[in-house]
Amino acid sequence: MPPRLPFAQAAQCCRKALEVPPKQSSLVSLFAALSVQTRSASILANLSDNKGAYHKRIRRGRGASSGYGKTAGRGMKGTKARNKVNPWFQGGQTPLIFKHGQKGFVNHRAPVMAELNLDRVQAWIDAGRLDPTKTITPRELVRCGLVGIKDGIKLLARGKNEIKTPVDIVVSRASAAAILAVEAAGGKITTRYYTKAAIKNLVSGKSIHTDKPLPVGPEHVESVLQQARTSRKHFYRLPDPTSRWDIEYYRDPAHRGYLSHTLKVGESPSLYFKVPGEKPLVGKKSKKTADATEERLF
Amino acid sequence: MAGKGMRSLSEAMRGLSLAAQTCRTVPVRTAPLISRRSMATEAPVSNITRSVTEQWHPITTVPVTIHSFPSLEPRSLETYSAKHLYLPLRRDILHLAVVYEGDNTRQGTAQAKTRWEVAGSHRKVRPQKGSGKARVGSKQSPLQRGGGKAHGPRNRDFGTKLNRKVYDLAWRTALSYRYRRGELIVTEDGLDLPLPEDFLQQAQAGLLTRELEDAFIQKYVGEILGAMQWGKAHGRTTFITGEERMNLFTAMEVAGENGTALELEDVDVKDLLETGRIVIEKSVLKEMIREHRSDLVTTIAVPAKKKEITLGSLVYPYPKYAEN
Question: Please, which residues have CB within 8 angstroms of residue B180's CB and are 6 or more apart in sequence?
């Protein structure tokens, strides 16, 4: 900004704008009319944080005017005024924790899933940090900073109305609302079994991602061996589920599981419970007919 | 009274070429409303609202004039992003930065001896009972004369932390505050105080005593800065250069009542807000903003777009004819 001209020169050149009333009131009185006044040499004298940053400091036992004098907020006499009482103490009656005991246990073997919500995914896509044109696997999710490395990734539906971009995403698990939201936006979601070690291998490049299970059967042996002999780098394969719960989870088309294509038409994903069908139960009917034909006295 | 005062004040301020409101332009009225009364009913014409189809676009860049020193001749024009030099005034952010700098400047070396540090034996002064006097333990008790201090100052670190991006925002807010008020004067590189030739010759020849030299420099600086209205009577001036300029720095040390001179590495937010104005070299301003724009520059690698933030790009003289 150009340097300021002295006041006298300024008054001469800008006289047109100034309409001088007959009685010229001084600038001081005009300043007094305004609410914002400053008489300090610099702004340093008028700096302070916002009101909410300052809180009343409570110093107990320092006189009546503070509001916390004498008993200092402890009331009158009693153990709590003089000592500490355990939170579970019930005056001598057997405390609840001993009467009923503790409920349940903590399952330390349960897999801990990294939670990922749809609003975060959309924000990352908008910022250009996640590429929606390619398949989004745990490798991409970890490397762009959306999730950390845990036993798996579960896709949840906070922000289900915000997701607009069609994405092809593969995660460990997904909530029903998240599946609906992704498919409503035109995307595709698949759930696949991962372990923590598998995710680490994917991120470090020691494994190549695939949404198909390992091939089972002697007919696949030769091709896999040929692959292993020709490739220079060794890649660790991704594991498939072995526990009943996991197998049933990934066989379920409602979870968009990667094993759901192995189900026959009308088959239930459960390995134990069968869907009641049109075929009659084997054995019972033939027994009844045998009894009817036989002649019996009683 | 307040309304009348406001109108006359704004007119008086315009006459003195000072803005009554720093952030917006006040609509200019040539005569008071009362004198424009007519018989016909008129719909009031508002200067502020425009037509519905016109959109308002905020400013994205601001101009900075580069002057020569000490003649203050405008030599060129540069632009800076509004996010560098046209930030809104945030007093709370400035406060955070100034307090943070003050905390970290504290030495924290005040210390008082406790009862265990005061020299002397810890023998019980007199028996518990029987003397007829008050019971007393050791001579170093805080109750005793010559005893230790119970809760005195201890050697400690008063330093605090402030988010780097908040500190950088405070830095640029201070520069924006100065820019808005016209107290940021940017000069060409090589900012130095020109001393008279005959004085320099005499000083180098050793004809002047130290007191004479200092007195002359003090008077000279006082008169030069006084004439520019940059001196003691106008709030003092801070000169910021890239490296130490002997003439300027020794002169400001001697004539400290007129201002101060600092190198870029010694500047704090508090220094930017203290005196009446800041006179800074153009390359130093560029370097300063480059050092304090962490909240604008992202460290996340996004391969697609590259955002160009205007950092002192030359506007005038036209780059084709620029000397450097």
Answer: B22, B23, B86, B89
Burial of B294 (0-12, 13-18, 19+ CB in 10 A): middle
Residue B18 counted as domain residue: no
CB atoms within 10 A of CB B159: 11
- Touching check for B235 and chain A: CB below 8 Å? yes
Q: Establish if B137 belongs to a structural domain.
A: no
CA-CA distance, A273 to B19, in Å (whole number)? Answer: 83
Please give the Cα distance from B214 to B210 (Å, whole number).
Answer: 6
Q: At residue B224, what are phi and psi to the nearest 5 degrees? A: -60, -50
| B12 → chain A, closest CA residue | A18
What residues make up the domain containing B267? 85-105+160-291
Given 3-state DSSP classes, what are the helix, strand and coil percentages for chain B, each rounded to the nearest 5? 35, 10, 50
Q: Do A11 and B177 touch (CB under 8 A)?
A: no
pLDDT tens-digit profile of A31-54? 555 556 778 889 999 999 999 999
Contact A49 B98 (CB under 8 A): no
User: What value of ipTM does the predicted structure carry?
Assistant: 0.75
Distance CA B55, CA A222 (A): 70
Is residue B223 in a domain? yes
Look at residue B278 and tell me if it is in a domain. Answer: yes
Place of tokens 């006459």: B15
pLDDT tier, A14 (very low <50, low <70, confident <90, very high otherwise):
very low
pLDDT, tens digit (0-9, with 9 covering 90-100), for B98-131: 999 999 999 999 999 999 999 999 999 999 999 9
Answer whether B170 touches A (CB < 8 Å). Answer: no
